């Protein structure tokens, strides 16, 4: 199971659409971390992202981010 560690920060508009696409298409979920992400958290996320790219293509994050932006802008 792919899980990315994340801080509970204000994210830009449309970010929820992006995380929803990651979960729906790739099964990637997010675990909220209290406080700042540590070096270990960043290393863990990089390993998870590498595995996602291996499974879904090296451009999966770029493609889903672009799709989320379009969906958000079109109000979908």
Radius of gyration: 13 Å
Number of strands: 2
Which descriptor suits the 3D outline?
Answer: globular
Please state how the strands of the largest beta sheet are arranged side by side.
1-2
Mean pLDDT: 93
How far from one another are the termini? 28 Å
Unreliable residue stretches:
none
Overall structural class, as computed from helix and strand content, comes to: alpha+beta
Strand count, sense and barrel status of the largest sheet are: 2 strands, parallel
Helical run tally: 3
Query: Which H/E pattern describes the elements?
Result: EHEHH
Which percent bin holds the helix content?
55-70%
Give the amount of beta strand, in percent: 5-15%
Task: Provide structural commentary.
This protein is an alpha+beta fold and about 80 residues long. It has 3 helices and 2 strands; from the N terminus they run βαβαα. Strands 1-2 form a two-stranded parallel sheet. The protein is globular and about 35 Å long. It starts with a strand and ends with a helix.
Task: Provide a concise account of the structure shown.
The protein has 76 residues and is of the alpha+beta class. Helices cover 58% and strands 13% of the residues. The model has no long low-confidence stretch (mean pLDDT 93).
Keywords:
3 helices; 13% strand; alpha+beta; 2 strands; 76 residues; two-stranded parallel sheet
Summarize the helices and strands and which ones pair or pack.
Elements: E1 3-7, H1 15-26, E2 29-33, H2 39-56, H3 60-73
Parallel strand pairs: 1-2
């Amino acid at each position: 199971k792919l899980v990315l560690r994340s801080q509970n920060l204000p994210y830009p508009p449309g970010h929820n659409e992006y995380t929803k696409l990651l979960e729906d298409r790739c099964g990637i979920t997010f675990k909220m971390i209290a406080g700042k992400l540590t070096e270990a958290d960043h290393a863990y996320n990089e390993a998870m992202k590498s595995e996602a790219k291996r499974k879904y293509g090296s451009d999966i994050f770029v493609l889903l981010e672009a799709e989320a932006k379009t969906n958000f802008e079109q109000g979908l």
